[in-house]
Amino acid sequence: MAHTDRSPLDIATQFPQQDGLLYLNHAAVAPWPLRTQAAVSEFARQNVHIGARDYPLWLKVEQQLRERLAWLVGGVHIDEICLLKNTSEGLSVIAQGLEWHTGDQIIISDQEFPSNRIPWQALANQGVDVIEVNLEGDNPEQNVIDAMGPRTRLVSLSAVQYGSGLLMDMAPIGAACRAQGTLFCVDAIQILGALPFSAERVQADFVVADGHKWMLGPEGLALFYCRQAVQDQLTLRQHGWHMVTDPGNYTRKDWQPAITAKRFECGSPNMLGAHALNASLSLLQDTGMDVVANALQQRVQRLIDGLHSKGATLLSPTARERRAGIVTFRLPHEAPNETFQRLKNGGVVCAERGGGVRLSPHFYTTNSVIDQALDLL
């Protein structure tokens, strides 16, 4: 599908948010574009008036979604993509699917969101140790690599840390994992839709991300990328009609799991979510991820400059190579919860995270929204 050179400012018409709303919370739950509303409305209309008569056409939409997700993860093969409910489910499929041994180690960071911590900690009853690596310093990637040892079975890291906004350079970590025979899992929920990403470049075995943040889609539908070469390492813990090699043959008594990543989809798909997320991703694809990333970085820089002028302390990295779409800060002489409430009262949608207030614009966010939010400080 060809990308266009459409200006990011033209995209703003896709986001007719109400007057007075200053939406800077895409790192949590993002608004939908108009085309997503239209897709969901049309899907609802069909369900009301003709039911599932045109289900084969719905399956084409679902297939298109898989293709767009494969594109978003760097052009991987579509057979390595499956659709799950959320990031936590994807990480749990890995955690519960691998065969663990007493003494195995899993490395995560000390800044992870609970989605990328709890599924691994839940393996403690199998004798698995979770090592939390400190990401402070000039080379957090080397901190992770230095923590790896002969007992390290898996490294699971967020590409962008949800609180600090730290953008990790995943490639050297992935290379170290591949060289050692260690599995590498990327929680990509804070990077997909914000910056270009390639699963193959970073040598990831697994990539997991829900669609409701930077992908501008609904909650309840997530990407799960599983590299073809490691799919057989995951024992299936969920079974149903949808995950077999011949899902349309309902009378067949013998069965085998699908030879693609669809083996992890046990039952009926979230077709409503598929229509919504497919429409949202079409906007990113029509725009092009390089355009999206450059526009987002301009907005992040505007926030950084404005916060510096207000005397704020930046808790997020300011160097472009270390940031994605998150800017976390605190003001002198004011507790973060007080700053958060003041911004909220002024119409700013943001979050209190990482010891400060987290602002997260997207590529379509106007300068006016950013400037109005800064004026409230």
Polypeptide structure, described:
The protein is α/β, with parallel strands linked by helices. It has helices at 8-11, 34-49, 55-72, 87-97, 118-121, 140-147, 170-180, 271-287, 289-309, 336-345, 367-375; strands at residues 22-23, 81-84, 105-109, 129-133, 152-158, 183-187, 206-210, 222-226, 313-314, 327-330, 348-349, 351-353, 356-359. It has 11 helices and 13 strands.
What amount of the residues lies in strands?
5-15%
In total, the number of strands is 13
How many individual helices?
11
Helix content percent band: 25-40%
Radius of gyration: 21 Å
| SSE order | HEHHEHEHEHEHEEEHHEEHEEEH
Question: Quick one: overall form?
Answer: globular
Q: Notable features of this structure?
A:
377 residues; alpha/beta; seven-stranded mixed beta sheet; four-stranded antiparallel beta sheet; disordered N terminus
Short description:
The chain has 377 residues and is an alpha/beta fold. It contains eleven helices and 13 strands.
Write the SSE topology.
Elements: H1 8-11, E1 22-23, H2 34-49, H3 55-72, E2 81-84, H4 87-97, E3 105-109, H5 118-121, E4 129-133, H6 140-147, E5 152-158, H7 170-180, E6 183-187, E7 206-210, E8 222-226, H8 271-287, H9 289-309, E9 313-314, E10 327-330, H10 336-345, E11 348-349, E12 351-353, E13 356-359, H11 367-375
Helix pairs in contact: 2-8, 3-8, 6-7, 9-11
